[in-house]
Amino acid sequence: MKRLIGRRSFLGLMGTTVALRSIRAASTGLPVEPTDAPAWQMRLSASSICFSELTIEQACERIADLGFEAIDIWSAHEGCPHLDDVASRLGPEGLKELLTKHKLKLCGFSVYQGGYARYAELLGQAGGGVAVQGSAPPGEPQELKARMQQFLEGLKPLVDLAEKHNSYLAIENHGDALLDSLDSLEAFVEANRSPRLGIALAPYHLQGRQASVPQAIRICGSQLFFFYAWQQQADVKQLPGVGSTDMMPWVRALAEIRYRGCVNPFMHGHPGTDVMVANLAVARDYLRDCHAQIRETTKP
């Protein structure tokens, strides 16, 4: 059965779209697109955790050499050293110099370990972007809307930090979490009224629920701040074009909502630098090909 977005959800999307367009895009990870823009433009980023065995300098070099536009820098999840190293050694100016050297933009920070508050000032001083973190434990289905409202209320101090530091906070969907289903995505969108707060969508976890990724993208709409191009398969097959998932419908849905963030090919695991480079190259080319095909058929 086709899932419909409710009236409140639609109005929430429209209101947030207007608010987001009113925020200047300078020094953030979410550029405002003119209403008369031509074809949708896909921007690609890569996560530093894919090269957690390397220094942040080496990770930036690999990601830039692969032709990615931006980098998502990870805190200490699975021992990734990069964000804490930036905080303690490089600082915001050193990070900006490093990114300028490699012609990379700062997509944002993934702060599953440590949380956004710990890195908020650094993110803002480095130019701003999206900070990605998880949600909360799940509850009973009949309590979903109330628990989502309570969760968003609890995020207000972090949203205030995002406002102060000219950044955005994105909550990732995850298996066995409050934000984990199409219903929970819709509850989030309906309840959220802050243009600084949105969703980081991980299709890997949606596929675990046999949920429609394109429908999830459309539900998120303008509140989609970060998108993992990530499929539920083993090892390097998690990556686009390496595993068997047809991501064309995903990219088409992103184009339909005129997604403003980065498309981030992603996997968990550490197969080694050379293997990761080779497979990220496949993922890059696959996503570019999807985008090229979408551009031929998508009107502004």
| CATH homologous superfamily caption | Divalent-metal-dependent TIM barrel enzymes
Q: Average pLDDT value?
A: 90
What would the CATH topology be? TIM Barrel
- Identify low-pLDDT runs: 1-29
Strand composition percent: 5-15%
- At CATH level 2, the architecture is Alpha-Beta Barrel
Oligomeric status: single chain
The chain-level structural class is alpha/beta
Roughly what percent helix?
A: 40-55%
Q: What is the general shape?
A: globular
What's the Cα radius of gyration? Answer: 18 Å
Order of helices and strands: HEHEHEHEHHEHEHHEHEH
Strand tally: 8
Strand order of the largest sheet: 1-2-3-4-5-6-7-8
Structure in words:
The longest helix is centred in the C-terminal third of the chain and has 25 residues. The protein is an alpha/beta fold and 300 residues long. The protein has one domain: Divalent-metal-dependent TIM barrel enzymes (TIM Barrel, Alpha-Beta Barrel), CATH 3.20.20. The chain contains eleven helices and eight strands. Helix 1 packs across helix 7, helix 3 runs parallel beside helix 4 and helix 4 packs parallel to helix 6.
